[in-house]
Design a protein that fits this description.
Layout: E1 3-7, H1 15-26, E2 32-34, H2 41-46, E3 51-53, H3 62-66, H4 74-79, E4 88-93, E5 112-117, H5 137-159, E6 163-166, H6 169-179, E7 183-185, E8 203-207, H7 216-226, E9 229-233, H8 240-250, E10 256-260, H9 264-273, E11 276-279, H10 288-295, E12 300-303, H11 308-311, E13 318-321, H12 326-336, H13 343-350, H14 355-369
Parallel strand pairs: 1-2, 1-4, 2-3, 4-5, 5-6, 6-7, 8-9, 8-11, 9-10, 11-12, 12-13
Helix pairs in contact: 7-8, 7-12, 10-13
Length: 373
């Protein structure tokens, strides 16, 4: 089969980009179509691949600042690509309405389109986003106008997809709710470098971009109240105010460290050495970092909701926070200190989300659905 891969854009290297990397490993000769790229870790990972950007990439400032306010251009961006020469197009889709591709030049030859959906665009359907744009009145008005038309387009584009794959049962429910489409769940691949033998240290860990919607402020306030060490690895993204707010909150707390971007080698050491990993987003689509923590033998303290419910075994590989408040996080940390979690239990649970499992399930899916009828 001749396969093309499509991804929102290349910038930061997060969970969606790890899925794209796994897809590219499976089909190394498949070109990667994307709206645009900008300097960042994702671009460094894929720059030696056959990356094909849209016309919008060449608009001055589009990749850095204009792609968000000009997101209504998404239909024109994706319809500008010609996929008629391919047998299968696999999209890695989240916020940029990356689905429903057509063909150009009057071609009747349309490839099988498979959408690996990380989530229907959160900003379109009222879910918390990493950039809390709702705080600005003029942005809310603009987004409501753009969103009205983009929701109609998003639904229409979803109807042109042949098959949906959801990254979790949580996302599958959203696909059914908003698109009236069925989907098959194939959990994303979680793969770390070999875990080094390190001694557990007395710190808690968060791996996340410094953005809103991730529960970072709750973690900082809880760490201050308990007087425990907290390490936060991840670079600031979105509005600078998110990072400044966290710095201000952490000012009175000893042992709260912002590590910025860390290498994969350092990431594994941080996971392995932590007492527990904190995952406090209130409605995570799936959440790969908790699985990465378990793969390193570290239990997880997570909010009881979203995709976390599908990966964490309460009392065995972690515990849940029932209410997104500082006091609830404090109580959960205290409860976790009384439980003897076994590293082997955590690793065994993480193995259910391995890269090999992902590739086997996707190959099996294509064997059934990857041919035109």
């Amino acid at each position: 089969m001749k396969i093309a891969l499509v991804h929102d854009y290349l910038g930061e290297f997060g969970g969606a980009e790890r899925v794209l990397a796994a897809l590219s490993d499976m089909w190394p000769d498949a070109p990667i179509y994307t709206a645009f790229w900008r300097p960042g870790d994702a671009w460094e990972r894929f720059k030696n691949k056959d990356v094909r950007v849209s016309w919008a990439h060449h608009i001055p400032g589009f990749a850095t600042k204009l792609h968000s306010p000009l997101r209504f251009l998404a239909p024109a961006i994706w319809n500008s690509f010609d996929f008629s020469d391919y047998d299968v197009v696999i999209s890695s889709a989240s916020w940029y309405v990356t689905k429903g591709f057509g063909t150009r030049g009057g071609s009747e030859q349309k490839p099988i389109e498979i959408c690996y959906c990380h989530t229907p665009p959160r900003w379109l359907y009222g879910y918390p986003t990493s950039v809390e744009w709702q705080r600005y009145a003029w942005v809310r008005v603009y987004a409501s106008l753009v969103g009205f038309f983009m929701r109609h387009y998003d639904y229409s584009a979803a109807q042109r997809v042949n098959y949906f794959i959801a990254n979790s049962q949580n996302t599958a429910r959203r696909i059914e709710k908003f698109y009236r489409r069925e989907s098959e769940v194939i959990y994303p691949p979680v793969e770390l470098l070999p875990t080094p033998k390190v001694k557990k240290e007395d710190y808690y860990l968060i791996i996340s971009r410094i953005v809103g919607g991730k529960g970072l402020a709750l973690a900082v306030e809880a760490a201050k109240k308990l007087g425990v060490r907290l390490k936060i690895a991840g670079a600031p993204a979105g509005y600078a105010t998110e990072y400044q707010d966290l710095l201000a909150r952490s000012g009175g707390g000893k042992g709260i460290e912002f590590l910025g971007f860390v290498s994969d080698e350092e990431l594994v050491r941080l996971y392995a050495g932590a007492r527990a990993f904190l995952a406090l987003a209130t409605d995570e689509d799936f959440g790969m970092t908790p699985v990465e923590a378990m793969a390193a033998g570290t239990p997880v303290i997570a909010f009881r909701g979203g995709g976390y419910l599908e990966s964490i075994v309460e009392g065995k590989t972690g515990i849940f926070v029932d209410v997104p408040t500082v006091e609830s996080v404090v109580q959960a940390i205290r409860r976790s200190e009384k439980i003897s979690f076994l590293a082997e239990d955590c690793r065994n649970q993480a193995e259910k989300f391995s890269k090999k499992r992902f590739q086997n399930e996707l190959h099996a899916f294509l064997k059934i659905h990857g041919k035109r009828k």
